[in-house]
Design a protein that fits this description.
α9 links the parallel β6 and β7. The chain has a 7-stranded parallel beta sheet, with helices on both faces. The protein contains 13 helices and 7 strands. It is of the alpha/beta class and 329 residues long. The protein folds into 3 domains: 37 residues, no CATH class; 211 residues, P-loop containing nucleotide triphosphate hydrolases (Rossmann fold, 3-Layer(aba) Sandwich), CATH 3.40.50; 52 residues.
Length: 329
C-alpha cells in the first residue's frame, strides 16, 4: 500500500482521509478529488474513510456507457451532461482511459473533451487509468463512484475504455447499460461477437445524420427480434439514433435512461442488480487482495511456480495450497 506523499507531509498540507469524509458528504469538490486520488493510489490510510463513505452510498443511479472504441462515447457523455444538468441533476462522470502497458500512464483525453460541458454544468468529471486491468473497470473506479454517490451526485456515468469480447465488466457495476454503436463499421454482427448486444438496456447509434445510421438501427432491432438480446430483465431494450454534435434525440436518450431507472424500482429488479453488483465487488476485491498478498510474499508463490513447472504439482493443487485448502488438495 502507498504511504502519505512525502512532499505533502513535509509541507504539513496533508489532511487525514477521515477528516475529508464530512467535506465529501457536504459535496466539497476539493475533498472529493483528493479522496479519489487516494483511492486510485491505494493509500492504506484511506481505507477507514472509504469504508465510512460506503455507508452513505446506495442512492445514485449509476449509468454505464460502453461500446467499441471510436464510437463517440465521450461526445455522447458530454451531451448527456448538458441534458441532465439542464433539469437540475448533479452529474458525476468517471471516464476510464486506457493506460500504457509500459509506463502505466493514461492519455486521459476524455477529461479534455468533456471539460467544457462539465465546467458549464457544474458536473464532476474524473478520468482514471485502467492500469492494465481488463474489463474496462478497476477497484478504484468503483470506489470513485462511491465517493460521488456519497457526495450527492446522480446520475453517475461510467464511461468505459471500450469493450472487447471479454470486456463487459460494466454490466456488473451499473444499473443502466447504454451500448453505443457507430454506423457503417462494416460487420453487422460485430456487436454479438463483442458480447455487448446482450448487456444493453438501451442501444444508441451515433451520428444519426449519416445515411448508414438507419441501417444500423434496423440491424440492431432485427437482432433483438430474433431473441439475441438480453434475457436477464423484463425490460425490452430500445434502439435510438442520436447526434451528439447537433443534440438530436439526446433528450429522448435521457428520458429512456430515467424510464429504465423507474422500471428497475417498480419491477423489483433493482434489488437483484444491487445484489449482483455487491457480489462482483466482493469477489473482485478478494482476487486483488489474493494477488497482492503473493506479490508481496513472492518466495511462497515462487516455490509453487517451480513445483508446477517441474510437473511435481498441478496448477489446481498449487492454488489450493496457496488458499490454505490442504484438505481439498
Amino acid at each position: 500500500m502507498m504511504a502519505v506523499p512525502s512532499k505533502q507531509a513535509k509541507r504539513g498540507a496533508y489532511t487525514p482521509s477521515t477528516e475529508l469524509v464530512p467535506e465529501i458528504l457536504a459535496g466539497r469538490i476539493l475533498a472529493i478529488a483528493r479522496m479519489i486520488s487516494r483511492a486510485e493510489g491505494s493509500y492504506a490510510e484511506a481505507s477507514v474513510a472509504l469504508a465510512e463513505i460506503y455507508r452513505h452510498t446506495g442512492k445514485a443511479h449509476i449509468v454505464g456507457i460502453t461500446g467499441v472504441p471510436g464510437s463517440g462515447k465521450s461526445t455522447l457523455v458530454s451531451s448527456l451532461i448538458k441534458s441532465f444538468a439542464s433539469e437540475g441533476y448533479k452529474v458525476g462522470v468517471i471516464a476510464v482511459d486506457p493506460s500504457s502497458p509500459f509506463s502505466g500512464g493514461a492519455i486521459l483525453g476524455d477529461r479534455v473533451r468533456m471539460s467544457d460541458a462539465a465546467e458549464a454544468c457544474h458536473a464532476f468529471v474524473r478520468s482514471m487509468a485502467t492500469r492494465g486491468h481488463l474489463g474496462g473497470l478497476t477497484r478504484s473506479t468503483l470506489q470513485a463512484v462511491d465517493i460521488l454517490d456519497a457526495a450527492g451526485y446522480s446520475p453517475i456515468i461510467i464511461e468505459t475504455v471500450g469493450v472487447g469480447q471479454d470486456e463487459v465488466e460494466v454490466v456488473r457495476a451499473a444499473h443502466t447499460i447504454v451500448v453505443l454503436s457507430a454506423p457503417g463499421l462494416g460487420d453487422d454482427i460485430q456487436a454479438i461477437k463483442a458480447g455487448i448486444l446482450e448487456i444493453a438496456d438501451i442501444h444508441v447509434v451515433s451520428k444519426c445524420d449519416k445515411p448508414e445510421a438507419s441501417a444500423t438501427v434496423s440491424t440492431l432491432q432485427a437482432m433483438m427480434a430474433l431473441g439475441t438480446a438480453s434475457t436477464r430483465t423484463s425490460w425490452y431494450p430500445s434502439v435510438l439514433a442520436v447526434s451528439s454534435v447537433s443534440g438530436a434525440c439526446i433528450r429522448d436518450l435521457k428520458e429512456n435512461i430515467g424510464r429504465h431507472w423507474l422500471h428497475l424500482k417498480q419491477s423489483g429488479e433493482l434489488a437483484e442488480r444491487q445484489h449482483n453488483m455487491c457480489k462482483t465487488r466482493i469477489l473482485a476485491t478478494a482476487k486483488q487482495l489474493f494477488e497482492h498478498k503473493f506479490n508481496e510474499d513472492a518466495e511462497v508463490l515462487h516455490k509453487h511456480i517451480q513445483a508446477v513447472m517441474s510437473r511435481d504439482m498441478d496448477p489446481t493443487l498449487a492454488a489450493h495450497l496457496l488458499l490454505g485448502w490442504e484438505d481439498k488438495a
